[in-house]
Amino acid sequence: QVQLVESGGGLVQPGGSLRLSCAASGFTFSSYGMNWYRQAPGKERELVATITSIGGYTNYADSVKGRFTISRDNAKNTVYLQMNNLKSEDTAVYYCNARRAPASNYWGQGTQVTVSS
Questions:
Q1: Stretch (H or E) spanning 44
Q2: What are the pLDDT digits (tens) for 67-116?
Q3: Residue 26, SS3?
Q4: Measured on CA atoms in the order 63, 16, 37, 82, is the torsion positive or negative?
Q5: Distance between CA atoms of 63 and 106, rounded to whole angstroms?
Q6: Which among 79, 90, 93, 109 counts the fewest CB atoms within 10 Å?
Q7: Cβ-proximal residues to 61 (8 Å cutoff; 6+ apart), any chain
C-alpha cells in the first residue's frame, strides 16, 4: 500500500523556519521524482519545489526561491522541505507528491503551515 506521510508543520512567526518531512512507503521511492505543493484557503494548489529521483536537479516556484530547499534521502525513503524566512503568504496546507511517468502519481494527506505573529 502506497503511503506518503507528511510531518513538521505548525505555527511559526514571520521570519522563522520549519522543516517538513515526507516519509514514503509502498513503492520504489528512489525511482520517483518528488514534489512539494501547497494550497492556501480559496486558492488553487501550486507547485512549490521539485527534486528528481536521484536528487541531481531541483526547481522552485519564484515565490520561494532563495528561502526554501528541497532535498531527499533515498536510503530513508524521505523527502524534505526546509523553509526559511517564512512569510504570512506561505501559510497553506503543504502536500507531498510522488510522480513517475507515465501515470504513477501519489499524494500525502497534507500538513498545515501557519505563519503568523
A1: none
A2: 999 999 999 999 999 999 999 999 999 999 999 988 899 999 999 999 99
A3: coil
A4: positive
A5: 24
A6: 109
A7: 46, 47, 48, 49
Beta strands in 40-91 (DSSP E): 46-51, 58-60, 68-73, 78-83
CB–CB of 47/33 below 8 Å? no
CA distance 27 to 29: 6
Phi, psi torsion values for 90, nearest 5 degrees: -85, -5
**Hey, what's the cell of 38?**
501547497
Phi, psi of 24 (to 5 degrees): -110, 150
Report the sign of the C-alpha dihedral through residues 114, 18, 62, 39, in that order. negative
Give 97's strand partners: 35, 107
Residue 5 in 3-state DSSP?
Answer: strand
CA-angle at 22, arms to 18 and 27, nearest 5°: 170
